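Review box. Two proteins, two foldings.
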Amino acid sequence: MDTTIIIAIIAAITGVVVGFIIAKILERNNSSQLIKNAKKAASSILKEAKSEGETLKKDKILQAKEKFIELKSEHEKVITSREKKMNEAEKRTRDKESQVSGELGKNKKLNAEIEDKKKDYNERLDFLEKKRTEVEKMHRSQIEQLEVISSLSAEDAKGQLMESLKEEAKTNAMAFIQNSVEEAKMTAQQEAKKIIISTIQRIGTEEAVENCVSVFNLESDDVKGRIIGREGRNIRAIEAATGVEIIVDDTPEAIILSCFDSVRREVARLSLHKLVTDGRIHPARIEEVVKKTSMQIEEEIIDVGKRTVIDLGIHGLHPELIKAVGRMRYRSSYGQNLLQHSREVAKLCGVMASELGLNPKLAKRAGLLHDIGKVPETETEVPHAILGMQWAEKYGEKAEVCNAIGAHHDEIEMTSLLSPIVQVCDAISGARPGARRQVLDSYIQRLKDLEAIAFGFNGVNKAYAIQAGRELRVMVESEKVSDEKAAQLSFEISQKIQTDMTYPGQVKVTVIRETRAVNIAK
């Protein structure tokens, strides 16, 4: 039994061993098959990968070649550009070298010429030095001979010459002083005439005809009878209501209004226009129309004053001063409209004050108000500048403005910088050609005569009469006229003008001598 068990165990072990061996053999066979299949698949994958790698390699090589060609082209362009610039730089360098060589040659030639001239100059200088020494010897010898002949030393002769020159200078100075005094007298007489004319005009007596009459045009002469009325009652009513003398004469289709007061003339003219247009002309209607027209004129005066101050940019002006400005429209000074003159003076004052760094608005204010004393409603003997200053003080204007108004004709002392500005601008506005009544042809001829006198002297190159003939500016040739001769020429021209011409005021003669040295840098 034990043997049977052992045999069974041995058989079992043998079976297990045999089964294990068989399993290993089968496993080995399967592994070989799998390995073959894997190798086959790997071979196929490698083949495909190799094919794809070759294709990719070709593409990359092609791209690399294209990139290389592109970079090569750009590099060649850069190299070409650099070579071109280098060639241009080399060309410029060669040109500069050639130019420098030429300049060096010229400089050498110039240096040689300069050396020759320097040598010649030194020789001439030595020669002149010798001549100067000889001349000094001859001069001393001649002085000694003259001293022997005249029995006077050189110092005594100089003293006598100086004494004679002093006497001559005193004589000329006295003549100049006398001329200045006479000229001042003439100027004073001229200013006196201006004051008289201004006084006559402000009082309103014996003015020029152009300032005293207005012409009223009619549609037909039949209207003249209606204006005169039965037994002249209408014309008498108009004259009584307006204070204007109405002259009805043989002038066709026109009647003349005569009055020294331009406001009253304007009231009469507008009243007549309304009466003729309306057709109702009788004393009661005349008084009604004149009253309404007077009110209308007063409103228009205020409106003109307001527009004027607004145009000039002036603010805060008292209503009475605005009214006075408006009344300037109906006043004139030497034939020049007073409002236009004052507006012009105001603008000139503003410009001049701006140039001098002063307050232009304050200057305009003073310029506009400087002649308000010429429009009083009542007669007065006070000078218009003082009267205007009193009005300005009364209505609260600043002290600078009041002083400028009162001092623009030197009635009072100037205490501010605005005063001379207003005075100068007033003179400019009144003195310019055409502003006030004067004969234009005689004015132009006087300027031509001034320039002609200057051209009559030797060495005069140009001559200009400026500032309305108050100054003659003469340019002389520096080669022909020295500085001392220029002063003498100015005196001679002034004496010639004084002797040969008649003119108002003074004429300032300015002689200008100028030396110019011009060279050109190449």
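Next protein.
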Amino acid sequence: MTHTNRPALPPEIARRRTFAIISHPDAGKTTLTEKFLLFGGAIQMAGQVRAKGEARRTRSDFMQMEKDRGISVSASAMSFDFRQYRFNLVDTPGHSDFSEDTYRTLTAVDAAIMVIDGAKGVESQTRKLFEVCRLRDLPILTFCNKMDRESRDVFEIIDEIQENLAIDVTPASWPIGVGRDFVGAYDLLHDRLEIMDRADRNKVAESIKISGLSDPKLAEHIPADLLKKFLEDLEMARELLPAFDREAFLNGSMTPIWFGSAINSFGVKELMDGMGEYGPEPQVQRAAEREIAPEEPTVTGFVFKVQANMDPKHRDRVAFVRLASGHFERGMKLTHVRTKKPMSVANPVMFLAADRELAEEAWAGDIIGIPNHGQLRIGDALTEGEALRFTGIPSFAPELLQGVRAMDPMKAKHLEKALMQFAEEGAAKVFKPMIGSGYIVGVVGALQFEVLASRIELEYGLPVRFEGSQFTSARWVQGPKAEMDKLINVNKQHMATDHDGDAVFLTRLQWDIDRVMRDYPDLKLTATKEMMV
């Protein structure tokens, strides 16, 4: 990702910041998202996103199962204005079992905010998501949450991030006190003291302009013992930690960290200001043919997510499209590159959590939803005629495989239809073994089987049963036709096809995979398949 010598973007595009929030479950992502919407004027009062009486029904969580479980399963996009910026916040499912969806969401954003729990530090899920950000050199802003609870030493947290995630950390703010004594933070980028108001959780912190650290005003607002420790820590931090360097941040090698408490609305505004002021504007996107610059006049975009049955009454699907270039207007005709067919985009939706608004226009960097009946798939490109294939949208080998059967054998056809839909949506991999009947469903996390079973029943009225399968892993196979035929003839019981009709080798043992690689050197076995046309 290069940020240098690029032309200045048109103002509408330049003011966009498209990002995702990533975190380990329970680090406070939903609360932070809620406060972003609150300060962006998208909701009136925090907690409205999730009124307690409504059994924690978050505005951005709309599937029945999520309402039952209180977790965000489906990533939705929310757009709102903050100061002069237009924020496009793409919500990532926080649950560890929905990783593939989350990974794909990260291909559609230009930056990520990583939320860390001050008491727990870097957790396993954070690490996984973080690796994906690093693969794409995404700029990362870190928010250390829950500072109003007993949390760990600040240096320890920073060390852990540097060690575990191999990234330089620079403090954007420094906390004053911790746990019960947490009074606020000092904004190092603007020399401001931010004092937290514990009385009103929805009130933004009071901001006091300070002229440097020797300003006597500090002592008026901070108890002497806390001030002494704060000044000592800060001096140490300035010696030990690198200063903020925007270039290093933009190329993904440095993360600025803010300290706060999302539930108390503390530190959130500063984080949002940081995203506006320093965050990347819409970036160049890569296609197999060439790079696509956001300021190009023609509209291009790619589908990174398909959400089926957002409205169960109408079996619609909404394809989430990240606009890579141009200025999109409602009613535009775009070419669906894979089928070479024109598509008239008459009713695109912009997302304000669960409220859909018709989008009259959108610019590069924006996320729009296109309702369709299954024509659009993950990885598809939409352009004004140019044949482009966007690269880098991953599809992972499932780690768990199970057979699936309809309880009513007469409904096998319906089951096939449901499974194909989920496969196209990217919710699961569906394999049709060459021998025997039935389907094998592959997912990245065990909870997904439950989600699928509940959705097949809800959306298709089909009770199904998942059952153990003899296979534990799947590899896509590519190579010369003669070699492929040879492999298939010898290993029929291991062979299947995915929903695109591509060959897949199913197995229990790594040994089998090694054997095929040894016996068929011309064939390529891969654990991922680029979602490309």
